[in-house]
Amino acid sequence: MRTVQLNEDSIKDILDNLIKRSPNRFTEQEQAVNEILQNIRTNGDSALFEYTKKFDGVDINADTVKVTPQEIEEAYEQVDDELLRVIRRAMKNIKDYHELQKQNSWIETKPDGTVLGQKVTPLQRVGVYVPGGKAAYPSSVLMNVVPAEVAGVDEIIMCTPPGKDGKVYPTTLVTAHEAGVDTIYKVGGAQAIGAMAFGTESIKAVDKIVGPGNIFVALAKKAVFGFTGIDSVAGPSEVLVLADETANPRYVAADLLSQAEHDQMACAILITTSQKVAEEVSKEIDGFLEVLERRDIIKASLDNYGYILVAENLDEAIEAVNAVASEHLEIVTKDPFEVMTRVRNAGAIFLGESSSEPLGDYFAGPNHVLPTNGTARFFSPLGVDTFIKKSSIISYSRDALRDVHEDIELFAKAEGLTAHANSIHVRFENE
Questions:
Q1: Interhelix angle for 138-151 vs 170-179, to 10°?
Q2: 3-state secondary structure of 103
Q3: Which of 54, 190, 196, 240 is the least buried, fewest Cβ under 10 Å from its Cβ?
């Protein structure tokens, strides 16, 4: 893992390198994705089933595209009781955390008859995408479905690709059922995003699509935005650890590698004020690489997007942290809570050596669907707000409007919108 001195040039080079991982850079795949989406929009189910056979090797039709209650029962028989217990504990933590995010409608009245307010309304129908095939991502199911449930969404559907046997991974099915998904469809990829965005004979269009996926899923979500809502266009995972001389190098190394194992495009960065910590972390990483199962993926990730940056002082380090705006930020310093107050940009912040990133991935309660590729500068984690919309409420009495009607008319005329001005004027033309 390369070690460099932190300065303006090195941080600029790193930011330039990291942005190469953005889905916005994969223009060569966009044409293929757009063709799939157009085919789904035009031909509906027939195109959807055709792509499922082509990409997943499974024949499905209108009768088999939907997961049946019997399939869910069979899935429960295949899931270990101890794992189910952990899933339920994690789900409770996630629900409790997101309950605190709920917002209420509000009304403010004034003596002159002015009534202003805000109406909070849950979305009616939401689609959750879950990667599938042979892999199981029950944590992703929980993180996307539970906040929608808490928000009060009327209907939650889920799309996930089937395995070669035409079935959805049992753990995925059981977790979706536990979390409250109403209907599960055995389709994946860009074609599933198109089906949820535009609707087909079997899958009704949704108001918003959430959930992670590969580059084709990410580009499809980007393309359908506007026809439907989306949570974000997610990029590869990333972690940044900010450490001083008090940090445990072995813990830091382990945490960096926990993200690097995702895929070759994952990013792991250490920014430290201690040259000694930098050297020891590097040695610990070399040791872990000898024993970890996914060492080839980890090594590729570190070679491409892994950095150890040595800063002159904590102020310089924090400035770099805010510039990177990482998805996950671990702060392992003498006073992590004080340092946290100086951090402006991060998706999720983990404080202290006992708060490693996987704690947030699976169990603590805060959402693990986070802004990536520097978008933590302006995006927030997925949460209850993702699944609600807000309407403004305005009501004026005649007396209240009389007091301000000339001001409104003047403003409208200044913009050349005389019909706007007239809409107010006619209410008082006889006075």
A1: 20
A2: coil
A3: 54
pTM of this structure: 0.92
Would strands 106-109 and 115-122 be described as parallel, antiparallel, or unpaired?
Answer: antiparallel
Give the tokens for residue 239.
């972690």
Q: How many CA atoms lie within 13 A of 20 on its CB side?
A: 12
Nearest residue to 267 (alpha-carbon basis) of 52, 20, 45, 29: 20
Can you tell me the distance from the alpha carbon of 49 to that of 65, in angstroms, rounded to the nearest whole number? 8
First to last CA, the chain: 79
Where do the H-state alpha helices sit in 152-234?
170-179, 189-198, 215-224
Contacts of 286 (CB under 8 A, 6+ apart): none
Q: Which residues of 246-260 are buried (b: 16+ CB within 10 A; e: fewer)?
A: ebbbebbbbbbbbbb
Whose structure tokens read 């024993």? Answer: 291
DSSP letter for 52, please: I
CB-side neighbour CA atoms (13 Å) of 109: 3
H-type alpha helices, 261-370: 275-289, 295-305, 314-324, 336-340, 357-362
Indicate the length of the chain as a whole number: 431
Convert the pLDDT of each residue in 83-136 to its tens digit: 999 999 999 999 999 999 999 999 999 999 999 999 999 999 999 999 985 567
Dihedrals φ, ψ of 3, to 5°? -120, 125
Beta bridge partners, 238, equal: 267
301: left (phi over 0), alpha (psi -120 to 50) or beta: alpha
Tokens linked to 263: 């895929």
CA atoms of 418 and 408, how far apart (whole Å): 11
Q: Which ranges of 100-134 does DSSP label H, i.e. alpha helix?
A: none
- State how far the Cα of 56 lies from the Cα of 257, in Å rounded to an integer: 31
Q: Helix axis angle, 81-99 relative to 138-151, nearest 10°? A: 40
235-285 pLDDT tens trace: 888 999 999 999 999 999 999 999 899 888 899 999 999 999 999 999 999
Look-up of token digits 């100086």: 342
Q: How far apart are CA 272 and CA 124, in angstroms?
A: 47
Secondary structure letter of residue 125 according to DSSP? E
**Pick from 188, 214, 357, 153: nearest CA to 144:** 153
In whole angstroms, give the CA distance from residue 99 to residue 384: 8
- pLDDT at residue number 234: 81
Nearest to 326 by CA among 255, 261, 267, 251: 267
Catalytic residue positions, numbered: 327-328
